[in-house]
């Protein structure tokens, strides 16, 4: 990932996030740190209590350090609380978990939630997700999200060395520009889904589809849609690996504008030969599903659907460069 002469915001988030715990001469300018410790040794016992304490309209980075433990609570970072850095003691030590599931049909629109126009219907995950972030300028690092794990609906969000666990609807990459670096995402059915515009950089995707589920029905790594033909968006998986149990389609299209790219990823043999499903989209010509430079048994494209896109070098760079999620 080569920086251009422009000042790319998400690259700055990456540098800043990595410098928080190092001796860098230019650390993230954190104005204040709150500690969450369920044993009572910090400023708060609950993560949501720390979030609530952040002032509305916040304009300075505030770090919420969550000490090791399993925190069984539902957490929401509302739109009015940007510039939060949520940091754990490692995704294997600090876990946010809640036993809920997406089961109801939610008819609220983006306009209802964000005050902007749009024809995107929200997911039931809005009611069931363990963790919801709607604020812009959010960073998470070294922390795990479990159950119907997370919904990311703010703009300019970045996740580093985080983990997301569930079976169905693990990570709702809802709307906005997002960056995931060295994250672990586990699921079986539509475990990464939404309308976002995101790069997954060197992430590990792991299927937990049981071999006997629905007579060995394959799962879907992604379920994605763009609101319209001219709307920005897409999921780009750059490097990393796809592995695990059962069988998986790489994705199924929520609509005819779905856009998912797998670039230089290592894939085990869990990928079904067809690779993709159009689902209920009748116009496959406008779907952009592509695999470029991938390796491993699952990357064998023999048997792929005939409408999978073949991208030229210029088209590939449009997606894999950081400019895909950064408008300068």
UniProtKB/TrEMBL annotation:
Please indicate if the UniProt record lists Signal as a keyword. Answer: yes
**What does the record list as GO biological process?**
cell wall modification; pectin catabolic process
Q: What does this protein do?
A: Acts in the modification of cell walls via demethylesterification of cell wall pectin.
Q: What is this protein called?
A: Pectinesterase
Annotated signal sequence is 1-25
Enzyme class comes to: hydrolase
Q: Where is the Pectinesterase catalytic domain?
A: 35-326
Keyword annotations for this protein?
Aspartyl esterase, Cell wall, Cell wall biogenesis/degradation, Hydrolase, Secreted, Signal
